[in-house]
Amino acid sequence: MTTSTRGAARTPAVLVLEDGRIFRGRAYGAVGETFGEAVFSTGMTGYQETLTDPSYHRQVVVMTAPHVGNTGVNDEDMESRKIWVSGYVVRDPARVPSNWRSRRTLDEELDAQGVVGISGIDTRALTRHLRERGAMRVGIFSGDAVREDSALLARVQEAPQMKGANLSAEVATTEPYVVPAIGEKKFTVAAVDLGIKGMTPHRMAERGIEVHVLPATATVEDVYAVNPDGVFFSNGPGDPATADHPVSVMQGVLERGTPLFGICFGNQILGRALGFGTFKLKYGHRGINQPVQDRTTGKVEVTAHNHGFAVDAPLEKVSETPFGRAEVSHVCLNDNVVEGLQLLDRPAFSVQYHPEAAAGPHDAAYLFDRFVSLMEGQRA
């Protein structure tokens, strides 16, 4: 429930975590109430891309950077059709944006899209709490939604959890669409939209790929109806343990031996398709400064992440799967979480992060070239 108001900055607001921790501040964006999973993002820039990333559906994002909104909001950096976060938490919002592309303030954009937020709280203390206790349900309340603390806590504890949530179909396109190749068309790719970001098909189009973006409900027959040279599975929200349909579709692609590339949720789908399990991380990886090693080259990349689940695959050995041998190709240097998989006997690989990284960094852009190389090899 949200109620738009121009006086939000002076309206008291309360943030309530499911374990009873409470923070008090001021409303930011729309006034009302909202619920979701509290997670923190460590990026110091790129907040517009974060807000419009469908993978943040049903999550309340806490920004660790203290100053947010400095560059306002423009009409070019949206990664999808709307803001997807269910709530937004900042410490010190910019009073006046300063950027030549800015069209409106971040506060105004959140208000216009009905996103309830809170400002003026100690986001460092909140982030430390989430690191120690783990991501958890949270509610933000402002205006008429504010009640006794015990009543607000009860509302938060009634909210649905992220574990077990099946959300891809809620954010994906309902109708197929095509992103044409830029310049000469070299390949056709079927991209299964599980929560795709706009920059992803653009990065492929830059490489001469015509991208057919398909709904999350697409079947194997739908995928091959576009006569693809390769198949792509996108990022997206929710628990991969619930994604039985995309897993089945991916297994159909693997059986045919078509070059395959998955990112983020797509990496978890590949893990499940190969027979590995998935699990929920304590507080996940979110932000644009996560160090990952590409084990195939030894190179260390600074990468953009947004995931709360991971693949449970052995790091130090090659695994036998129904589709041949597989190995962990990328690993997070902070905590040894699996950040990539590759098949050794079929043209398929995936990473757990975002190589399109519109807000940067661009260390992982080569992965799109690796996908092109697989399609070139298959065609040859």
Protein traits:
380 residues, alpha/beta, 10 helices, 22% helix, globular
Outline: globular
- Termini separation: 56 Å
**Overall radius of gyration:** 21 Å
Task: Give the integer mean of the pLDDT values.
Answer: 95
Unreliable sequence segments: none
β-strand amount: 25-35%
Largest sheet: number of strands, sense, barrel closure: 11 strands, mixed
Number of helices: 10
State the secondary-structure class: alpha/beta
| Number of DSSP strand runs | 21
Helical coverage, percent range: 10-25%
Report on the structure:
The protein is α/β, with parallel strands linked by helices and 380 residues long. Helices cover 22% and strands 33% of the residues. The protein has 10 helices and 21 strands. The chain has helices spanning 47-51, 106-112, 123-133, 149-158, 168-171, 199-205, 220-224, 244-256, 265-273, 366-379, and strands at residues 2-3, 12-17, 22-29, 31-41, 59-63, 67-68, 87-89, 92-93, 116-119, 136-142, 177-179, 187-192, 209-214, 230-233, 260-263, 277-294, 300-312, 319-321, 324-332, 338-343, 348-351. Strands 11, 12, 13, 14, 15, 16, 17, 18, 19, 20 and 21 form an 11-stranded mixed sheet that branches. A 7-stranded mixed barrel has the order 2-3-9-7-5-4-10. α8 packs across α9. The N and C termini lie far apart (56 Å).
